Fold this protein.
Amino acid sequence: MTKVGIVITDPQRFDAADTMRDAVPLLAALHRRGAEARAVDWADPEVDWAGFDLVVLRSPWDYAVRPREFDAWLERADSLTRVLNEPALVRWNMDKRYLAQLETAGIPGVPTSYHEEESSLVDALAAAARGTGGSGGPADGAGTPAHVVLKPTVGAGARLTGLLRPDDPAASALGRQILAGPGTVMLQPEVPELSAGREKALYLVDGRFTHAIAKGALLAPGGGLRGGSYRETPQLVEASAAERAFAEQVLATTATVTGLAMPLYARIDIVESATDGLLLLEAELFEPLFHLPLAPAVTEVFAEAILARA
Ligand SMILES: Nc1ncnc2c1ncn2[C@@H]1O[C@H](COP(=O)(O)OP(=O)(O)O)[C@@H](O)[C@H]1O
Ligand SMILES: [Mg+2]
């Protein structure tokens, strides 16, 4: 009997319903196929990882608050069992500076500058406020600088992510908070289509498109999250042929850049910008919520793909 571990975050530390949202239907589909499968917290010291034929990372979301522990676990689990997506790909994907590598290899993304020092961030914010920075659009007719977005390179769930005016003291304060993490700050111009809730997540299993979700806007102008807490409003949406081709291109380029094999699963977050066309926001290769309850047929495809790799 194939033994599969579905890796989640400790439900005591995280919203249990969220971390189990995909795991519940996925485990049921695996059980229907005769597999022995259960959800396991990556940080649980009691787990016998060698007892699994395969462990599948699904919602290890607290990795972002303790990346070093997660990395150490990844190394240990990798030595004891088969981990998917493969740890080398996960490590590459944990830090959003992979976006710069993909951009160099031809995948258009949101224009981003990276800051490891407060001084360089302060300069970039000042340039954005004047409308002269690479990050931060031109000032409008009234001289009001366009908003910028700050976020950490290692982050998920819009943690420490803010949509702010570059001259707002809250912007530099958020930057300092990210740097103190310790972390690296990503600074981007606001993409209006993202703020209008037009981000689309395209899902692929074994490189094949399965479904697409729109999740609505998340950031409140002036800082923080709309409605005060992280709340996606996921809806199944169509993906055009061009969008699917873009997502496939992201995976193909990832393989070229990393030299690694096709991932078991991927979520490619994109937005169509009126001025710049399709842009990659992020490629989630070890943590994406699949919203399986909205797409029951995908659960079966996913379970089959897991067992085919066991
Ligand atoms: N440049 C941007 N302009 C407008 N909104 C943004 C921008 N970058 C991110 N956002 C919003 O913040 C959310 C979280 O950012 P994202 O880069 O996806 O990081 P993560 O999901 O890993 O926390 C996005 O889903 C989007 O709603
Ligand atoms: Mg995201």
